[in-house]
Design a protein that fits this description.
The chain is largely without helices or strands.
Length: about 70
């Protein structure tokens, strides 16, 4: 892909996105007040419900650059 073929887009990632669940479809995120011992991620506590991260499709050979 040359620079003239590049795609640029902005997206916002919510602070509730559990990035360690990226690409997973075999996990259900339990509700905040559920003490599900099968949920292997350490929860931060509080009342924020975790969410799955955004899906950004990237084709083989493409390059993704992230800035913040």
């Amino acid at each position: 892909m040359t620079s003239s073929d590049s795609r640029v887009f902005n997206l916002s990632v919510p602070g509730t996105a559990a990035i360690y669940l990226a690409g997973r479809d075999d996990v259900t995120i339990p509700l905040v007040d559920d003490d599900d011992v099968a949920f292997s991620l350490l929860r931060c506590g509080g009342d924020l419900q975790e969410t799955f991260p955004l899906l950004v499709p990237v084709k083989p050979g493409e390059r993704a650059t992230f800035e913040w």
